[in-house]
Amino acid sequence: MVFSSFNFLFFFLPITLAGFYLLGRKDEHWAASWLLLASLAFYVSWNLAYLPILAVSIVGNYLAYRQILRAAEAHKRAWLILAVTGNLLLLGYFKYANFFIQSVNDLTGAGIHPLDVLLPIGISFFSFTQIAFLVDARQGKAQEVSLWRYALFASYFPYIVAGPVLNHRDMLPQFADRANYAVTANNLAVGLTLFTFGLAKKLLIADNLVPVVDVAFAGDNPSLLAAWVGMLAYSFQLYFDFSGYSDMAIGVSRMLGFQIPFNFDSPYKAANVSEFWTRWHISLSRFLRNYLYIPLGGNRHGQFNRYRNLMLTMLLGGLWHGSNWTFVIWGGLHGLYLCLQHGWQTWRGESRPAPTRTGRVLGQVLTFLAVLVAWVFFRAPDLPAALEVLRGLVGLNGLAPADAIGGWELSMVGIGAFIAFLMPNTNQIFMYFENRFPDAQAAFSLVRLRWRPTLGWALVTGVVLVIGILNLDRTADFIYAQF
Question: Can you tell me whether residue 119 is helix, strand or coil?
Answer without folding.
Answer: coil
